[in-house]
Structure formats: structure tokens, C-alpha cells
Specification:
Blueprint lengths: L18 H33 L7 H8 L2 H15 L11 E2 L4 E2 H6 L11 H15 L5 H7 L4
Antiparallel strand pairs: 1-2
Amino acid sequence: MEPIPPARRPRPNRAPLPEWWWEQTLQTRQILAALIALVLVVGIGFGFTRLLGGGGVSEAEEFVDQLDPAAVRQWDQLAECESGRDWAADTGNGYYGGLQIQLVTWQAVGGVGYPDEVPREDQIHKATAIKELQGWEAWPRCSVTLGFTE
């Protein structure tokens, strides 16, 4: 005796979907998945940036924007003399950044990391605090060469 086949539901009388439809659907799903991934990555990145205090203008950028343009030019001139205006200078001599600041001095005014690892505005911001404490003597050779006095 042969087994009785299971009952099957009748299939609607539809033509099978063309191959292009399946390809289009796959492409649409891939694009949608990529967009969702992009939104997640950007959203998470933005969230971490905001959480860590980033996003927008930094405190140092605001500080430099509020400085007298002549004062900013002085810092740029000093950096030209000290490092050839290389804000990422690390020559191995114990001085770092465009303004050639010692690490202990940098840390004394609240600098984090190394001066050569932060943007120009951060270096100018901290250098202004150093100047408040030590005057232009913190940069003895270049301040004399440039004629900077109190």
C-alpha cells in the first residue's frame, strides 16, 4: 500500500515573479541595510562626541576667536620662530608643538596629552595661560628676536 500524500493547499494561479524583481528587491534590501548602518554609525559617533564634550566649537577655538587679531598674529609669529609654524612639531628636544612648550609646563596649565597632538587653537589657549604666569620669558630667544615685551 502506498502512503497517502499530505493534503496541499491549492496555489493561487499567479505567474512566477521575474528574475529582475528578485534582483531589484535584493538591491533595495542591501541599500536599506547600508543606510541603516550608516545612520547607526553616524548617530553613535555623534552621541559619543556629544558625550565627550565634542561637537561644535571647542573652548580653545572660542577663546582664540575672541582674542584680538594682533594677539593671534603674535602667537603665529612666535610659532614661526619656534618651530617654523609646525604646530605638530616634536623634534625630540623636550619641547612640543608650534610654540615649543615643555610637557611639565603644558600640564601645569591644564594641558592634556602633548602639545604637538592638539590643534593650534588649543596650543594658543594654553600658551596664553603660560604667558600670564611667566611672561614672554617662557620663550626667551624668539620673544627677544620678535621684540615681544610686556
